[in-house]
Amino acid sequence: MCMFIKEAGGKTGSLLVFLHGGGVSGWMWNQQLEYFNRYHLFIPDLPGHGQSRDESDFSIKQTANDLSKWIKEKAADKKLIVVGFSLGAQILVEILHQEPELIDYAVINSALVRPNALLHRFIRPMVKSTAFLVKNQTFARIQSKELYINEEDFTVYFQESKQMKTETLIQVLQENMSYALPKDYHKARAEILVTVGEKEKKMMRKSAEDLVHAHPNSKGIIFPDVGHGIPLAAPDLFNQTLDAWVNKQPLPDQLKYLL
């Protein structure tokens, strides 16, 4: 596997893997590094992103397959926790489908599992006609605010956005908009927490509900007053929630239940 993977934390702890969203890279989890430093942390840059930018071909299924093989080599007898955001959450859903016995705890944050065939058709011409905007700093700042990217991380976000290949961006968006909930997802043995922001689009809320309904051992929660970008928008609450979930403690009171 040619993905760049950052390793951190304590090597004797449980294995905790963070999967980032589309258009960013592993740095989006910087505010989780210190909080979870007692875990053995692995943070990949997904194909076409960050330090894996030379991997130009991207598919959710292939990335899930590659990561599953790599995780098996690293996990041994450790408890395995995988957290995914957006595109990374879709990859996590696919891993749960492909390898139902692999993961102990999964946190699926803002995963779209309702395909949009109409929008999918327009992705290529839309990206081709607007590709020049990627190099525009003003446009990048508008986009970064939508994802709650702070000033400290903006520089790397802008540089990586300019470096991403147009064809890779098209593939990422097409994969994101066409991904559907796998029929065998319910067979995964993991304990699953599905999260969504209160201000996210309706299709994200519906996708979260689909995920909860589809798996007998899952719980859905809503993070108040945030949109698409919970780990960046509310890192303290996100960290407390993840920590409580994997250690079977009560979740923070300010969260709302999805169903």
From TrEMBL:
Residue stretches making up the AB hydrolase-1 domain: 15-230
UniProt superkingdom: Bacteria
Pfam family, any one: Abhydrolase_1
InterPro entries noted in UniProt: AB_hydrolase_1 (IPR000073), AB_hydrolase_fold (IPR029058), AB_hydrolase_sf (IPR050266)
Protein name, UniProt field: AB hydrolase-1 domain-containing protein
Lineage: Bacteria, Bacillati, Bacillota, Bacilli, Bacillales
